[in-house]
Fold each of these.
Amino acid sequence: MSARRTRIVDLIPAAAEGANVEITGWIRTSRFGKNISFVHVFDGSTPKTIQAILTPALAEAHKGDLGVGAAVRITGTWKASPGGEQAFEVAAHTVKIVGTCDASDYPLQKKRTSMEHLRTIAHLRPRTNTFQAVFRVRHAVSWHIHRFFHERGFLWIHTPIITTSDAEGAGELFEVVATGESGEPFFGRSAFLTVSGQLAVENFAQAFTDVYTFGPTFRAEHSHTTRHAAEFWMIEPEIAFADLDDVLALAEDFVKSVAEGVLTDCADDMAFFDRFIEKGLLDSLRAVLDAPFARVTWHEARALLAEAEAQGKTFEHAVSAPGFELQTEHERWLAEEHFGRPVFVTNYPASQKAFYMRLDDEETDGVATVAATDLLVPRIGELIGGSQREERLDVLDARLAAHGLPAETYWWYRDLRRYGSVPHGGFGLGLERLILWLTGMQNIRDVLPFPRTPGQAEF
Ligand code: 4AD
Ligand code: MG
């Protein structure tokens, strides 16, 4: 008689009545009764647990060690489950306690705990139902991102994590210094953790046409919001022979395709989020996937906001104030209340955006604008920031100067504008914000394995 260890997700549809099976996992619940004793085991492969029925002898022998959190290996017979929550269960033959779990102080007892509390035990929270679902979805999102680009012939470029230029020109950098460093810096100059792989990946777009980078990104922003982390993951496609419209079309296809993939592959987990985290999540996501995203220019968006303000809507940041910039409250009003779906805002004032964005040929209301876009989505605000890039060297140099950035540091970026420069563009999407949007989770700290935010880098 041979028994094999199988992931629970594979066992459920595949095992035949009467088959010998072996399961490994951790106990979610256990019950010991006079007539019947059972444990529910999970292994992370599915939201489903397996119920293992214990004979009185097995129950008696292991009772003390079969509490919540214990790791077990159980062999038994796969059989139909009379009236249980699941169609099948395992009639256990052998039970091995692989790792005991001290019930006197195990932090994950059955009672519901707050997200805040779970952050303090981030090493154990992956075992809870919510975090099981979050990290299965996080994997599926990542996988569908790669699938999307691979199917379209994009190359994944591993842009460096240690950089020497500030890609966003925003000065929110972490410096990289060797421990005990004194005198000559390790790299012979200042080096930083990347804030974006864009500048590097642009070089590859002008050699391979369609490329993307996808990796960890670091920003020393002192933003204590539910949408900002100091370490997050960003996806940045870059396409050559392309303008802003091409970038928008790619972004919309991309978001929809990844969302579809996750809805299909993670149906059980998505149903969990719909039920316990954000009621109506599935309906709202489906509605989004069925309709085109809205589009407005920045000037049109400002006019819509001004009109709302005139009709009595109050914003903390007044729309008529000089130097007005879109804040999260405006972004959410546009996406949630006005359009009720994701919306691309385009052609921002040049003064509000990074140096590399392409200057528009015409001004609007006397304001110089750039071929930029932000995708705003309900519940989140900004999900994507992107643009067509400035491909004209003289204009780029003027923009660098206007931003007070040293042209020497960007010499290789400038070179691209001298050797076969073509119109090109791309965008950056924050992985965690996409996951928040897809799952209804509220806080970026709860979709990162071990979040890093100002004042917080435990684990
Ligand atoms: O708008 P951002 O700053 O754009 C760029 O970095 C461009 N270089 C992208 C490009 O065109 N290739 O950042 C892009 C996205 C944001 O829209 C947001 O989703 C996410 O990255 N993001 C953050 N996510 C979590 N925590 C932070 N601190 C984030 N900062 C940006
Ligand atoms: Mg942005």
Amino acid sequence: MDRQFKLLVDGRATDGVSYFPVINPATEQPVAQCPKADAALVDTAVAAAKRAFPAWSATPVEERASRIGALSDALEARAGEFAALLTSEQGKPLDQAMYEVMGSVFTLRAFAAMRVSDRTLRNEDGNTVIEHRTPLGVVAAITPWNFPVILLMNKLGPALLTGNTIVAKPAPTTPLTTLLFGELCRDILPAGVVNIVCDQNDLGAVLTAHPDIAKVAFTGSTATGKKVMASAAESVKRVTLELGGNDAAIVLDDVDPVQVARKVYGGAMTNAGQICVAIKRAYVPESMYDSFCDELARLAREAVVDDGAKQGATIGPIQNRAQFEKVRALLDDAKSRGTVIAGGDPLDRPGYFIPPTIVRDLDDDAPLVREEQFGPVLPVLKYSDVDDVIARANDSEFGLGGTVWGRDLARATDVARRIDTGTVWVNQYLAIDANIPFRGSKQSGIGGELGEAGLHEYTQAHIINAVALEDA
Ligand code: NAD
């Protein structure tokens, strides 16, 4: 691709101080050159966002909402172009890339329709107490490589609607769709309201330590999230951390194993398992363990593993070499501890391809069970007692999501209540919706995104407590 990409700083398309190649994970060939910022350019971007803040935060919310609506329209108009670029830098099949782009369009629209209203906490005996909410200032939006488009929109929509300005920094392996989105921002927003800088994993820390950043909205790994939180402590920045997960699927004994195996397979393998809330371990009753495992293996063998740009591909590559090596190491370890019944070996071709892999007969302390694999390798574990399996599911430092599968909805919902995570889906997976809050418990995060609660994260609650002066 000979297309040129530019950073966005103070409303201007800006050259990098240097350039680095973005690699297509399906071919290991460069997609394009990415402009790289340095600490001085980060300073310039933060200063531009700070200058833009007074006018943007004073702009009527209807006008801000209409600009967010215009961004969503512009994204929709170029959805095909965004999806193709997303597939080439991220690897996911084109239909999944289109789903992410259109999800981003709807997310922006949902935020454009939201409003933060004043709450009257007391209005009696001449005393009025109102809670209203003010924007924070400049927000650093730091995103990972698995869903580079929609995870940016989850931050940009609420930040802009509530009157904040932004410096966004995508992951170094998937920066191009963010830069393309910057072109839309340049046309639609006042200068400085959204700025985009790219790095090679060296500028996130510059942003989180910057004294003029009021809030860090971060999605990424738990290890990096801890660094973000420590760095933000220096000036007591607000932080939202959306971190890693190790979601359990608990299959109850009243389901049809073939029907539910298909759904669990989808929850584990979509985006080649690189979803924070992918099913990362499945617990299946002893009575249906063999048939459930066999059905998962059958589905895994049916998958079409190929370049996401190829028609019919159902699973693309792992997004980058480091992650590919991590998944491969977990898989190699699991081979010696359990039984691989589908997949198991990387494809012998260029690209970071690992086919969907099902591993059975592992113990709970296997690294593939305890760690976040973030790849298309699913361990399937056996249980015989529901209380015990709930304890096993909860025995994790992570607490992001999870699923429960049962024909008796009341019973399944009761099990869901006992899973210690931010979200539990019953008989469905990945039902993320811009109007419903999403957050992690334990080491999966702090604060939340989406919904009214997500909107509030970009504001300071401000109490006005008034009484009339008595007559002099
Ligand atoms: P990562 O933590 O390596 O990187 C995320 C971002 O942080 C990148 O932009 C990176 O450049 C930046 N970064 C690196 N060092 C930094 C520092 N010291 N300070 C600030 N920023 C820094 O994560 P990743 O490997 O890109 O993404 C995969 C992880 O993200 C998985 O653990 C996954 O579960 C998690 N994730 C969570 C959610 C969620 O909503 N909870 C969603 C998607 C992904």
